[in-house]
Amino acid sequence: MIDGFILLYVFMLAGFVGYEVISRVPVILHTPLMSGSNFVHGIVLVGAMVALGQAQTFLEQLIGFVGVLLGAGNAVGGYVVTERMLEMFKSSRED
């Protein structure tokens, strides 16, 4: 049961640290930050899958599933934003 509390503590701490880091970034840097940190979203996703794999109770499984869902959303969103940002820099004329 202690392992579940440790996983919950790590999950809550990661959420708090992530919020604090992102909230201090100026608005103009959000798109480059997201496009440059897609690998971080992948690491979060892997960590959430590891936590989900070690879950024993329903509550731990639910929290792990939410972590995997949010991590996957972050990763996909990061790639979508990167693609849109790169489209802005393409030439409008056909070569």
From TrEMBL:
Membrane disposition: Multi-pass membrane protein
Protein's cellular compartments: Cell inner membrane
InterPro entries: NADP_transhyd_a_C
Chain ranges of the NAD(P) transhydrogenase alpha subunit C-terminal domain: 8-90
A Pfam family recorded for this sequence: PNTB_4TM
Major subcellular site: membrane
Catalytic activity: NAD(+) + NADPH + H(+)(in) = NADH + NADP(+) + H(+)(out)
EC number per UniProt: 7.1.1.1
Keywords associated with the record: Cell inner membrane, Cell membrane, Membrane, NAD, NADP, Translocase, Transmembrane, Transmembrane helix
UniProt KW NAD keyword: yes
Transmembrane segments: 6-27, 39-56, 62-81
Protein's UniProt keywords contain Transmembrane: yes
Domain of life of the native organism: Bacteria
Function noted in UniProt: The transhydrogenation between NADH and NADP is coupled to respiration and ATP hydrolysis and functions as a proton pump across the membrane.
Name this protein carries in UniProt: proton-translocating NAD(P)(+) transhydrogenase
Source organism (scientific name): Marinobacterium aestuariivivens
